[in-house]
Every structure is written in C-alpha cells, then in structure tokens.
C-alpha cells in the first residue's frame, strides 16, 4: 500500500509510531495529485513546494518528540472559500481575480497549529452557489458530476489526492459531493465550528466541516476544528472534546428513526435499497428501528430558498452592481432574483425555520438519530439538468440533490454522510445520519459502527 492510500487515522498512527515520515506521506500524495489531477480538476491551485517545506518541518518536530496532534504531518486540501494568509481565495470566480487573504481563517489557523500540511485550494461551485462544481469531474466516472458545492474537496479525498479536506455546507455542499464520490462528509451543528475568514453564501445556513475517507477520520478533524470564536456571532461556547468513537460496534439501546415520508419519496430504487440495507445493518448491531414522520415537509424547499437567496444577494450587493458580467450566468441569475424578493418573504422563511426547529426537536425526543438517503440519486451525467422519476415527475438535478440535505441546514442539526455501496453503474451511494444539536458524538458512533461491518473502502480507480 502506498502512503497516499492510507486513511487519516492509519497515517497518523504510522507517523506517531515512526513507521512513516510526513515527508514520505506528502510526497506520495503530491505524486498522486500529479497523476490524477488532469482527469479530475479538483484543485484551483496546488502549493507543492510549501507543502514539502511544511512536511519537512513536521518531520523534524515528530523526530524531536513534539507531536502536536493526530493531524501533525497530514496533507489536506481546503475549499477555496477558506482564507489562508497570503494565498488567493478565488471562490472559483472571476470576481475574485487578484485576491489575496490578509490572514488565516479560524479553521485554517487551527489546522496549521495542529500541524496539518496544506496541499492547496480545492474547487467550489462559484461562490458555493450550486450543487455541481462544473469544473471538476466525479472521482468514479469523469463523465459524471462531482456534486457541489465542495466538489473539489470531495473528489480529492476520494481519489487519494488529499488525506482529508474541508468543505462548506449551506444546503448540502459537504454531504452531497461526499455521497456522490463515496467518502464521508460531516456538517456539524450550526455554530460548533467557527466561520471567520470563510466566504459566506448564506450566513444563517453556512457551516464548515471535514470530508474524509472514514468516520473516525472525520472525528479526528472535528476535534481540532470545534470550539468558540467570539468573532463569529453564531459560534457556540463548548468545552474541548475528543470526538473519536469507541472501537466497539454495539448499538444496543440506540433508537434509529426511519422516515416513512419525505426522505424515501422520489428516490432512485438502487439508492433506496442500499440505504435500507445499511439501516438493517444498524438493527443487526442492536439498534431499535422506529418509524418516524418528518414534520413540515411542504415548507422545506420554500424555507431553504427563502433564507438563502436574499442573504446571498445581500453579501454580493456591491460586486453584483459593479461587475455583474464577471459572474457565471447561473449564479448571476440567482443573485439578481434575490434583489426581487420582498422582505416579507424572508421574514416568513425565518418564522418557518423557527417552527421547523421546534418540530424537529420534538421528533428527536423520540429517537437518537435519523437514518435516510443523503441524496435521492447517484451522480448524473455532466450537463444533465433534470431527473425524471418513474411516476413521470421531472425535477431539476440541483433541486433533487439539495432536497434531502436542506433540513439539517434549516434546523442547524448535525448531519453525517457515510458511503453505503454502489449502484449498478458503479457510482457511490450515501446514507445520511441526522442527530440532535451537539450530537456529533452519537452520529460518529453510529457511522463508525456501520463501517466496522463493511470491507475497507478503496480509493476511486482514477485512470
């Protein structure tokens, strides 16, 4: 096994045991990037020399007995919404031409302090306002979409071109590409991971979190990222925590909610079969399955768009007025539509969110987690804009991909996407686990327990 093939936890163990040098690991991943990047286009920019320099520094520190954290010497990619001092934050947009960040974002600073090695910045759908990341190809089939908006981050991890990465999630932008590329994506509780220094799409829906090969890997990264930052008004005051799940796979006494509405409506048959099989595995591990009714489903789409569109337009107000021609057409149209939305609609969406949070809190009194598909279909072909369901219903691909992930953004609940197999075309399927506020430890425990029943996942077979 080559070093680039190691999940984060295995690589960290090998570095701690002096069986692997950070230099060997980073060189291996950089070689992998050079091989696969022409096929995938996951990165906006690769900072190879800086990464090698950081790897040498990490190796010297580890050799001197100064291991900072399990992330010390581990190579990562950061979505190009996340500021790194002196580097461009392009947001994959011509609007940001010439930009250079003056300071690290909170998350970049925390990862740097933990000793993680930056490989480069990964592609996003322009300003994170989309679910495809059109400039990046799916890791399992380059003719399929990567998913978005954190498409580059998910593809890099799936292909071994990063040991882990960070993405952002406003309506599913961590979990959607994670599911479509067969990796793990965690959207934490709103406010658990602070956002200063991250380009916003919609401040009241935005989250930042890890994309990794395994659930345990996600827990290691979250342990570094989580914690209060007073510069973020939404940041929660929480004590330091180690989110790593126990080694055991016993779920006795855990109540898993299985939705009887919404989450399995208009879902591809192969996706449903894979997710239900995974839920059966949770039951085999001792979990109790409980049928649940998802509340206020008719308002989910309107609430998500009613919050996101005006907030995004407000953020882009100046550049939309001065350089509208620099935006891609799909993003510019959405931003201009936000200018036409009455303030009353935004207030109605806020009220709907409040009611939805209350209803979901009641639902999560009945169960410990909810298990459902992450997305209703595997990755569509590039350029395919609609999905036609067996009953003749036609749905835009973007609406389909955001439909099952949006409730966790509206409510702020933590949500974890875990790979649970493949469809007949060899494309990955993801299962979504949703939990109570600050219930990350439970989600990670359940996801990790499921992983223990499965063979180790392979990297995507990129040409």
Automatic annotation (TrEMBL):
<dbReference type="InterPro" id="IPR023631">
    <property type="entry name" value="Amidase_dom"/>
</dbReference>
<dbReference type="InterPro" id="IPR020556">
    <property type="entry name" value="Amidase_CS"/>
</dbReference>
<dbReference type="InterPro" id="IPR036928">
    <property type="entry name" value="AS_sf"/>
</dbReference>
<protein>
    <submittedName>
        <fullName>Amidase</fullName>
    </submittedName>
</protein>
<dbReference type="GO" id="GO:0003824">
    <property type="term" value="F:catalytic activity"/>
</dbReference>
<dbReference type="InterPro" id="IPR000120">
    <property type="entry name" value="Amidase"/>
</dbReference>
<feature type="domain" description="Amidase">
    <location>
        <begin position="24"/>
        <end position="444"/>
    </location>
</feature>
<dbReference type="Pfam" id="PF01425">
    <property type="entry name" value="Amidase"/>
</dbReference>
